[in-house]
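Journal club prep — side note

Before the paper discussion, L.F. wants everyone to see what a predicted structure for a comparable chain looks like in C-alpha cell form. Sequence:
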Amino acid sequence: MRSSGFIALLTVIAAFVTGIAEAQVTAPAVPDQPVLITADELSQDEELGTITARGNVEITQGERLLLANTVSYNQKSDTVSASGNVTLMEPGGEVIFAEFVELTDKLKNGIVRQLRILLTDESRFAASEAERRDGNLTVMKRAVYSPCEACEKDPERPLVWQLKAETVEHDQERQEIRYRNAFLEMFGVPVVYVPYFSHPDPTVTRKSGFLAPDFGTGGNLGGFIRLPYYVVLDKDKDATVTPIYTKDEGLVMSGEYRQRFNNGEIKLAGSITEADRTKTQDGVQVVRRDRIRGHVAIDGRYDFNETWRAGANIERASDRSYLQRFNFFEQGGDMLESNAYVEGFRPRTYAAANIYAFQDLRSGDRPEQPFIAPLVQYNHVSEADRYGGRYSVDTDFRVLTRSDGPTTQRFSLRPGYEISHVTDFGLLATFRGSLRADLYNVNQTSDARVNEGVDDSVTGRFLPRATLDVRYPLVRSTGSIRQIIEPIAMFTASPTGQNPSEIPNEDSTAFEADDTNLFSEDRLAGGDRVESGQRFAYGVRVAAYGARDGKASAFIGQSYRVNTDEKLSTNSLLDRDKSDIVGRVDIRPNQYIDVLYRFAFSADDFAEPKRNDVTFTLGPPAYQLSGSYSFITATSEFEEREEIKLSIKTKITDNWSFQASTHRDIDAGEYLQHRGQLTYEDECIAFDIIGTRSFFEDEDIDPSDSILFQLRFKHLGEVKTTAG
C-alpha cells in the first residue's frame, strides 16, 4: 500500500506535462518497478490512515526521480500530495517543477500550483496553477510558453518572444490543445492577440486546418494572398486546397491530393484560373482576355510484386509562360515531360515499356515535340563465365510520331561480350565485342520541318564493333601522400558509313566532346546515329591523395579517327580526324578549398579554348565564396555561351549571416538575376530578408523586383510576406 501511493503520485504528476503546449509525450510510471524512498523522516498514522515523508524526500522508480520537502498519502480519502520545491525528473529528459501537487478521486482529479516545465529542447512552460479533470482534461491558468533563453548578462531582460494565454486546455481524448485570450509578445511587447486558437497535441502526426499563409505586392501579379487549407481524409490520404487571390489576375485555385496504398502511392497537383494571356504573333504582342489557364502534375506508382511495377509522371501546362508567371516553380524549366511506364527488375535483367510526351516551354518558333508510344526495352547481363567474361544483350522497340517530321518505327538488337584481364605486371586490359542491328520503317509527313529530305522507306544497318581498352595504373607512396599515374588507351573498330540518309535523326542531334565520353565506344547519345569507323583514344590520369581529406587529380586526353563518316559531316566535332584536347583538373587540398576545372582546346591551336568550365568553393562557412564560369564556343549543335555565377556567404556574428549572388550572361552582356539574403537566427526565432531582381522577360513575364520576408517562431511555424 505504501509504495502504490507513491507510484500513483509519480504517474499522475507525469500526466500533467503530457502534450502541454509543445511538450513531448511522457512515459508513465511502471507499477511493477520497485520504489526507493529516502527522507529525513518517514511516519505512518494508522488512525488517520496517512503515510508521510518529510525532509529531502527522494522517490525513485526506474529512471524517474521525484524530489520534494514533504510527500504524503491519505489512504482513506485516496489523496496524494507533495509540497515544497517539488521536482520531477522524467526518463525522456523533461523536468517538472511545482510548489504543491494534490491528486484525488482515484487520481483522476487534482491541482498543481506554480507549475514550471523544462522540455528536452530547452523550451519552457509555466503556469500559476493547473487543474486535472476527469483524468482527461488539463486546464492551465495564466500560462506562458517560450523556447527562448534568458539573457545571461541581464536575466530580467524580456525574452525575444513568448506566448501568454489566460487559459490553456489540453484535451487528451480529442488530442487537442486550446488557447483562450492569447498574446504573442516580442521583447516584452504584445504584438498579436487572438481570442482563441488550437492545434493538435504532440501525439497527433497530422490534422485538418489552415497552414501558414503568405502574401505580397508587386511583381507580375500585382500582389497576391495565398491561404492553404490542409484536409485529412483518412489514414492513407490527405489533400491541400490553396486558393490564391491575385490583384491583376483574380482568383487562382490550386491544390494537391496524396494517397498511399499497400503497394504504391499517388500524388495529384494542379491549378486553374481565368486570366489574361499575352502572346506574340508575327512579332506583335496580342492580349487575349479571360483565358482558362492552369497546370496539372500527376506522380503515381504501383508495385505488382517484387519484380514488376507501373507508374506515371505527367506534367502539362495550358501555355508555356503560365508556370513562371504564377510562381509554380516546382514544375517549369524548358521542357515538361510526361511518362507512363511498366518496368521489371531481376538480377542483371531489366525490362520496361514507356510512353513519352513533351511540352516545349521555350520561346520562339520551334518544331513540334514528338510523341513516343511505345518505347520497349530489355537489358540482360549474364553471370561471369569460367574466364571472367560476361555476355549481354540490349534490345528496344520505339514508335515515334510527329506532325512536322517523319514517323518512325525502330527495332534495335545489340548483343555483346566483355572480358577483362590483369597481367602479372599490373596492366588492365578490357575487350568488348558487340553487334548492332537496326531496322527502321519511315513514313514522312507532307509538311516536313524536321529531318527534311528523309523519304518513306524501310531501311536499317548492321554494325559489328570491337573495342580494346588498356590501362596501366602506377601507384607509389611518399610519406602520407599516395600518388597515382594511369596512362589509358582505347582502340575501337567498326565498318565505316553506317548512317544511311534514309534514317531520320531524332535522338542523336546533340553531341559534346568532353572528358566524360572520350573513352566511350560511341559518343553519340541515342541510337539513330552511330559513330562508326576506327578510332583511337588516349590520355593520362594523375592524382595525389593526402592522409586526410586532401586530394588533387588531373586528366588530359584526345581521340583520333582513322577515317571520317560523311553522314556525320554536319557535326563539326565528329567530322575531323583529331578531336579537341579535353580534360579536367580537380583540386581539394582541404575542406576549405574545392576547385574543378574542365576544358576543351582545339587540336590545331592549343591556345584556342573550345570550352572552359570552372566551379569553385573557397573559405570556411563563416566566409565562403563560391561560383562557376562557363564558356562554350559555337558549334553546329550549340550557340556560343559564356556566363558566370558568383555567390558569397558570410557569418557576421553568431546570430547574423548574409549571402549574395549574381548571374550574368557575358555573351549577351546582361545580368540574369541578383539575389541577397540577410538572416538572423537563434535558439527560438529565425528572421530572413531576401531581395531578388530578375531580368527575365518573355511575353506576359516582365523583369521584376521582389522582397521576401520570413519570420519563423520555433514550434509555431512561420510568417511570410513578399513585396516588389
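L.F.'s comment for the group: The two ends are 71 Å apart (CA to CA). Keep this in mind when we get to the figures.
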